[in-house]
Design brief:
3 strands; about 60% helix; mainly alpha; 4 helices; about 5% strand
Length: about 130
Amino acid sequence: MRYKSTPFKEKIIDEFCGDLYRVIGASLEDYRLMYAKHGAIFDVECDDVLDKEGPSGLRYHLKHRLARLGYMFKRCDEEGEDWMGEDCEEDFWEYAATLNLGIDQNGLISENKEVKAATSIHHESV
């Protein structure tokens, strides 16, 4: 299967690769493998989000997923898996702010304005 390649998608994926390595020390191939083990195909999902939500939607989607994954790794490392039954949305967003990914609960954050996220993504989907 051939995946769509657009300048927008390539730039967003390149940005994601840098964030991915900085936040959890993983390569895109590592992430694709982890994704596949959970029954999803990274490139197909990116194409779907890009088609439905546009470039800013894809950027938010990937940054949000990465922040959730980083948060889960951090909490599991610190506390084991027992914390997963808690409501920790506020704590997650405090953690996400420390990652400097340029997102908050409302969407992408640009220098002078905020771009609303097209959809909400919950930690259960990561």
